[in-house]
Write the structure tokens for this entry.
Amino acid sequence: MDDLMMHKGMSINETVKRYPETIAIFEKYGLSCIGCRAALFDTIEQAAKIYGINMANLLKDLNQTVSKNR
């Protein structure tokens, strides 16, 4: 996998800063707290667990979005 792609250990904040186009995907999955304090520290994996989101699907959509914009 490309080292610039998302992985479960990335913070939401890091992901959004590096790939702003991912905001729409987080919102699609109901993670609308992109600007909240938790986003500074929560990883993609932690957010998926907290919100009951299928992490594999979330990562797939995030990575596809970034790939389209390269």
